Amino acid sequence: MFRAVLIRTGHALLSMLALLIIVFGLVRLTGDPVRYLLPVARTPAQEQHLREYLGLDKPLIVQFGTYVGNLATGDLGQSFRMRMPVTEMIAQRLPATITMGAAAILLTILIGLPVGIYSAFWRGGILDRIGRFLAAFGQSVPNFWMGYVLILIFAVQLKWLPSGGYGTLGHLLLPAITLSFHSTAGLVRLLRSSVIEVLNSDYIKFHRMKGLSEHVILWKYALRNAGLTALSFAGMVVAALFTGSVLVETVFVWPGVGRLMIEGIQWRDFNVVQGVILLFSAAYICANLLVDLLYIVLNPRLR
Amino acid sequence: MSVQPILDVRGLTVSVELPSGRRAKLVDDIDFSIPPGGALGLVGESGSGKTMTSLAIIGLLAPATEVEAGEVLLEGEDLLKKSKHELQKLRGKRMSMVLQDALTALDPSFTIRTQLAAPLRQHRGLRGAALEKALVDALERVHLPASAERLNQYPHQLSGGMRQRVTSAIALAGEPTLLIADEPTSALDATTQRHYLELLKELQAATGFALLLVAHDLYVVRDSCERVMVMYSGQMVEDGPVADVFSSPQHPYTRALLGAIPEIGESVAIEAIEGQPPDITEEIAGCRFAARCKFARDICRSSPPALTPRGADRRARCFGTEPGGWIAT
């Protein structure tokens, strides 16, 4: 098992390196940061001086080598615009993103789990129909649009919650709901179909023949078996939360790493963009690794 | 007969709603009873209504199917009059069932201990040391070697024969008076099958439950049951003591079933039964077996035969074997 973890980690590092090469090249195609950092009235000599200062005059391969070398020591480089270490900027913004992500995961589980299970149990019933409609809706609507609709209803019309900003529980509510919409819908659909499949299995029939109550069968035996399928979904949820956070943080003016990346792209702040994307991919890979390990722990057939 | 039967089924009729809205009978007016400690074999091809009969008794018919008429008396109490909740309380405790496929009947995500302990706790109220002892006893009773270690294993770690033994141990954990075994050996190889049937007989002798053994194979029934009942297309076509039915079958279908199985050491050609059983959605005027019967005459195709006595405790549904009939038995 230790060996398996080691191999998986190796694969993960390789895919991160590949990703870094792509991002490193792509951001440099988007434009020249020097033009954003210097005032309009500038001389070519000033431009050249800044380019040398930022190390952008060197060949691409040398720049990449330096970056990877620094990365090995945990240094993500300096922000061109803010003149401070990227690690420090990420550290400042990360708590906000984690708060929103954790709230969204909590909502996904609190809503998705019972709705998914009950829709399967009462399949064809009224609750199942409502649940299925909302799930299809949630999966097909983009979350930034959802965010604006929620702002329109709860902030503009009803004036119950602030339309954006950071600090209180009230500020957290709308962004967390917006962010969780997509993953909740996915969990409902996945759990519903796997619970239906499990409930039709012979072993559930045999649990019934033993005289166990439907309640115990559903929440103990069916959930454990269906949950294994749903677990593989967890890795994708984490990915969806990060990519979703980029848009949702922008809509709700939430000071997280997602918005930091957008700002980085706007200012051609290469090191910031690279740093945030590396963080996202590392989080995604760690989440999937964790899911795989959890799978081994929960599924006796894999032990 | 003063002894009250454990299971007494009277006029049981089960039907399913077809997409067209009409109801088709899957089980048509079935009667049988099993005395305490008795064993009845229920035989027929797939689709003959055997499994429907057992599911109707235990109260777990699929939603679209329902019991249209009849009584199912378990020690005198009509199960069809009980609520879902009352039936759930009886299952596992007074009646129990072993499923067709031993390989899929055990929950893959839980240990044998968890699955066996649930009925012991629920039906016999066992806890702590008494529960622990009952767990080991239950596995030893089905001759599972190294029982104590087996408890902590998962189903996939056991062989097919072992899993079927565990399934029986679980089904019998609540000490039921009736055990329904629905083709319990069809997923097992021949040797394991034999061992399992022997075990079933041994358990029956030890605890005295009444056994309803559902099978498509008459020979499985021959060694384990006193009486046999043959079903065809939802109807009873013949019943009687096993030895009599085997020596002089009173229905061409029974005769065909016996002919379709080779005996060890015999070198006769296996006689397959020509054709398919009728579609349940079809309405048939005469005998349902007529289309496949080589003895059929005009009367068989025009009017349905009734189940009539053949001697003291035998019945058959065939014009040809009724007194004065044309089929020699």
Short description:
The complex is a heterodimer of chains A (about 300) and B (about 325). Chain A is mainly alpha-helical.
Question: Could you characterize what this model shows?
Answer:
The complex is a heterodimer of chains A (303) and B (329). Chain A starts with a helix and ends in a 5-residue tail after the last helix. Chain A has twelve helices and no strands. Chain A is flat. Chain A is mostly helical and 303 residues long. The model of chain A has no long low-confidence stretch (mean pLDDT 88). In chain A, helix 10 (214-251) runs antiparallel to helix 12 and helix 11 (257-266) packs antiparallel against helix 12 (270-298). Chain B has a single domain (7-316), classed as P-loop containing nucleotide triphosphate hydrolases (Rossmann fold). Chain B contains eleven helices and twelve strands. In chain B, the strands form two sheets. Chain B has an eight-stranded mixed sheet, with helices on both faces. In chain B, strand 11 (308-309) and strand 12 (315-316) form a beta hairpin. In chain B, helix 3 (112-124) packs parallel to helix 6 (160-171) and helix 6 (160-171) runs parallel beside helix 7. In chain B, 42% of the residues are buried. The mean pLDDT of chain B is 88. Chain A binds chain B through residues 201-214, 221, 224-225, 228, 298-301, and chain B through 58, 60, 88-93, 96-97, 99-101, 104-111, 118-119, 122-123, 154, 156, 167, 170-171, 173-174.
Question: Which tags fit this structure?
Answer:
heterodimer, A: 303 residues, mainly alpha, 12 helices, 79% helix, flat, B: 329 residues, alpha/beta, Rossmann fold, 8-stranded mixed beta sheet, 4-stranded antiparallel beta sheet, 12 strands, globular
Q: What portion of residues of chain B belong to β-strands? A: 15-25%
What would you call the structural class of chain A?
mainly alpha
Helix-strand pattern of chain B: EEEHEEHEHHHHEHEHEEHHHEE
Q: Give me the secondary-structure category of chain B.
A: alpha/beta
Query: What is the number of beta strands of chain B?
Result: 12
Q: Can you tell me the CATH superfamily of chain B?
A: P-loop containing nucleotide triphosphate hydrolases
Helix content of chain A: over 70%
Structural domain tally of chain B: 1
Alpha-carbon distance between the termini of chain A? 9 Å
Largest interface: A-B, 22 and 32 residues
What is the class of the largest domain in chain A in the CATH system? Mainly Alpha
Gross CATH architecture of the largest domain in chain A: Orthogonal Bundle
pLDDT < 50 runs, ≥5 residues of chain A = none
- Overall mean confidence score, pLDDT of chain B: 88
User: What would the CATH topology of the largest domain in chain A be?
Assistant: MetI-like fold
